[in-house]
Every structure is written in structure tokens, then in C-alpha cells.
Amino acid sequence: MTTSERRPRAGASRVGRPRRSSPVMLEEAAAELFLEQSYDGTTIDEISTRAGVARTTFFNYFGSKGDLLWVELDAAIPRLRAALDAPEGPTPGLESVEAALSRVADGISAARVPWAIAHRDLMGTTAELQATGLARLLEVVDVIARHLSRREPTLGDAGARAAASAIAGAAMAGAAQWIGTGTARGPLADHIREAVQPVIVGWRARIGAVD
């Protein structure tokens, strides 16, 4: 075989496994290292080295080591905000929150189960999840509360925030159940709806009583 025969032609497509993006390589490297030597025992330099990227590349995608634990949720919050900020349709505010949460959940496959939560005991991520999770939960509450303040004026600002807190908490509980179910977990959206629906029904009944 000649050199020209071995070398791909210019413009020819390359066959083989596509190169993974830097964020994915960093996530995978972090997961491996956290399992090998725990979250606290792993540095950003070690994650970058294992991923084969520069330390500066890490900070192009993540602000801190803790951000690696919340990749899916951090990506889902803007999608939830966009879904709730879409042009208003006939669905009332409370019910539209449930629908938006379901749509966002539909975009997360079982292959993207948050490893830092699913393997928190093995990785030693529990303390960091507790430390960094509240700020993200409050961000979800803020997104839902702003929507409810606009779409369910009967609630008032305090009521909208209380309802948003209950809905966000239920959604998180549904997600936690999904993560813990194992290989038979099914779609995330099913778990979210099952957890959120009773909260929506309760707050709808409260609004009806006020009216």
C-alpha cells in the first residue's frame, strides 16, 4: 500500500469515534477521580490533567470544582426560564409550571443521571452538594415565583413565592426518587409530574377558595 493510499483524501470524512468536547471530558475525568480518591481529595489541576486540557480550559466552562456536581441542573434552569417566559397560552399559571418542568425533564435522558448525587457516598460529595444545592434551589424558586406572580395574580407576591417553593421542592424530590430508582427508573418527567401534581392541585384549590 502506498503512502497516498494510506492517507485520507483532502475533504474526505474521517471514520471513527468523534472527539468529545472539553466539558464532557472534564466531567468524566472528575467522576473517575472522585471515585478513586474522593471529592475532597481531588484538585482542579488533577481533573484538568486527567481530561488532557489546560487548567485555564477548566475555568472556561466551570467556575469551581463544585459546579461539576450540578451540570444537568445548571443547564436545566435556563431552559425552565425560557419555557416559562414563552408567549402565554391558555394553560393557567400553576399548570403551565408543571408542563414546563415536564418539558425540561424530557430533555434529560437516563444516561445523564447526575453521578455526583447517585454515587455521593462513594465520591464523598454529600457535604458539597448540601453546601451548593440551596443556591440552585432558590434560583429555581425565583424563576417559578416570577412566573406565578405574573400569571396567578390572586396569589400575590408572598403566595407566589410560597407556591413556587412547594413546587420546586416537589420537583427536586421527584428527581431524587428518579436518581435513586436505579436502572428501572423510567423517564424523569414521569417522576417530576407524580411529585408536582399534588402540589399544583392543592394550590389550585387554595386559589379557588380565595376567589
Please write the string of helix (H) and strand (E) elements: HHHHHHHHHHH
Radius of gyration: 22 Å
The oligomerization state is single chain
Shape: elongated
pLDDT averaged residue by residue:
87
Helix/strand-derived category reads mainly alpha
Organism: Labedella gwakjiensis
Keywords: DNA-binding, Transcription, Transcription regulation
Protein name: TetR family transcriptional regulator
Pfam families: TetR_C_14 (PF17754), TetR_N (PF00440)
Report on this model:
- This protein is mainly alpha-helical.
- The chain folds into 2 domains: about 20-65, Homeodomain-like (Arc Repressor Mutant, subunit A, Orthogonal Bundle), CATH 1.10.10; about 65-210, Tetracycline Repressor, domain 2 (Orthogonal Bundle).
- The protein is about 70% helix and about 0% strand.
- It has 11 helices and no strands.
- α2 (about 20-35) packs across α3, α6 (about 95-105) runs antiparallel to α11 (about 190-210) and α9 packs across α10.
- The chain is elongated, with a radius of gyration of 22 Å.
- The model is unreliable at about 1-20 (pLDDT under 50).
Topology of this structure?
Layout: H1 3-6, H2 22-37, H3 44-51, H4 55-61, H5 71-84, H6 93-106, H7 115-118, H8 120-123, H9 126-151, H10 156-181, H11 188-210
For this entry, give a set of tags.
single chain; 211 residues; mainly alpha; Arc Repressor Mutant, subunit A; Tetracycline Repressor, domain 2; 2 domains; 0% strand
Sum this structure up briefly.
By secondary structure, the chain is mainly α. 69% of the residues lie in helices and 0% in strands.
